[in-house]
Fold each of these.
Amino acid sequence: ETGVTQSPTHLIKTRGQQVTLRCSSQSGHNTVSWYQQALGQGPQFIFQYYREEENGRGNFPPRFSGLQFPNYSSELNVNALELDDSALYLCASSLGTSVGYEQYFGPGTRLTVT
Amino acid sequence: GIQVEQSPPDLILQEGANSTLRCNFSDSVNNLQWFHQNPWGQLINLFYIPSGTKQNGRLSATTVATERYSLLYISSSQTTDSGVYFCAVDDYNDYKLSFGAGTTVTVRA
């Protein structure tokens, strides 16, 4: 059974640029959620994707957007990067979208915005 | 949204000691998970425990859903237990996991 994978592991971008982060869900999982973790804090929910559609969104601006593909992998796109976007971005997959499903996390992408 | 509080914020242990971490939450939950975040940032699943008691080796967890709290027990701690432990819940109205601020555990040899 393949776990959740993310790429790249590290990324350095300049303020104002755009970035795309990628996530492959665990085998058999059809739901992907993205979280942002700032230094010293717990992860914060960005959004969830199910059947290629956004299925819930946290308190993040529209410049945070995503996609889910037919194979359930997902992308997180951030436009017009700001210094405060520097964080660890975590992807999680689960068997379904209903409440109560256990979520499994990938190793994360550490984004630094300078 | 649901509030999650973890205590203590920091814990320093001597190798071999036992400890208890607590997670309080403000509303009924469908899902409660405990994670250990390793130094590289990955969240490792420890327990999926919306209610009841589970054990896995030196770790065990108990959730009392009616009283809205969960406990994580670490017995005979080892240096490899060091890291940040997070409790996360989702409530009946939402799909997202809401995380506590974490407990940073340092185990000294």
Amino acid sequence: QTVVTQEPSLAVSPGGTVTLTCASSTGAVTSGNFPNWFQQKPGQAPRALIYNTGKKHSWTPARFSGSLLGDKAALTLSNVQPEDEAEYYCLLYFGAAQLVFGGGTRLTVL
Amino acid sequence: QITLKESGPMLVKPTQTLTLTCSFSGFSLNTGSVGVGWIRQPPGKALEWLASIHWNGAERYTPSLQSRLTITKDTSKNQVVLTMTNMDPVDTATYYCAHRHTSHTHRYFDFWGQGILVTVSS
């Protein structure tokens, strides 16, 4: 059973920068895991932000960026806004048939 | 404009079979690289991918639930149906369907339905 691990919670001040990470129990996360990132606010469906490690959807604000950081996938939020307070989930693909979400990171904007 | 909407019972009894329908517009499941996936989220918990079906009919299931899940598509109706047998209170969750793109170079979910909360209780 593959486990994908994220920080349970992080806090950041408005205007600051924060990096969320996504690790795999099988080893290093690579571009071949096609990391995806989603934002979810209370009572809402998830909203896709990033795919293929660092590609943005047409609606993704420029302050969101994705990358590989060491052996993890990472989502960096720059110039954080109050509306960025949300739960963030990563999704990793393992081969053709297995997709695993991380446990989520609750981001608080202080 | 791509939209998806989940429908089905909001309350099922333990041991019953759940049948959920995802009705979509703005894309065709006859188009290469296109698929639809089902994802669920128990109250206060994380997202969990359940199953996907692709334009070519290929079905994929999460290993832990594979024996209980069946996903089918009706391209003429623009619908995808998920059935889950032997429902248990731990299956209480919001169930989402989402548009999926899968190719050798790109894999992602982009558009999501609003979700449907299914409660399992006697």
